[in-house]
Amino acid sequence: MASGIATVWLPVEDMSRAVKFYGETLGLTVKNEGDDWSEVDGNGVTIGLNARESTHGGAGGGAILTFQPDVDLYDEIVRLTDAGVKFIDEVAQHPWGKIATFKDSEGNDLQLFEPPAE
Which of 28, 41, 42, 76 stands 20 to 30 A from 10 (CA)? Predict the structure, then answer.
């Protein structure tokens, strides 16, 4: 039985660009940085940035990380858009919350999530 998430690995093409995106653009703490492997703290979950092997053909699917901003969802969308992040579509409204989907610097899918107001 799984007791939680230990680490999420994301493939990256350009390590310094990815570390800058997760550290500066998203505002997460970079725990360590290397050429082939870097780690970012996602509120207690380690996000491992794993350099792609040169034989890999590029981004195309994979894990989706969902972040819950500590401010209003739309305020965070504005902040990220001002930082150059491109959102894929309008905010999706669901009974279980709102989702805003965007790409990281390496083409991986990311989302912002806001639960419904109680």
Answer: 76
Length of the chain: 118
Looking at 3.10.180.10, 3.20.20.140, 3.30.9.10, 3.40.50.2000, the CATH number of the domain 7-52+62-114 comes to 3.10.180.10
pTM, entire model: 0.70
Are the CB atoms for 31 and 40 separated by under 8 Å?
A: yes
Kindly report, residue by residue over 20-62, the tens digit of the pLDDT.
Answer: 999 999 999 999 999 989 999 998 888 989 887 554 445 455 5
Contact at 8 Å (CB) between 25 and 80? yes
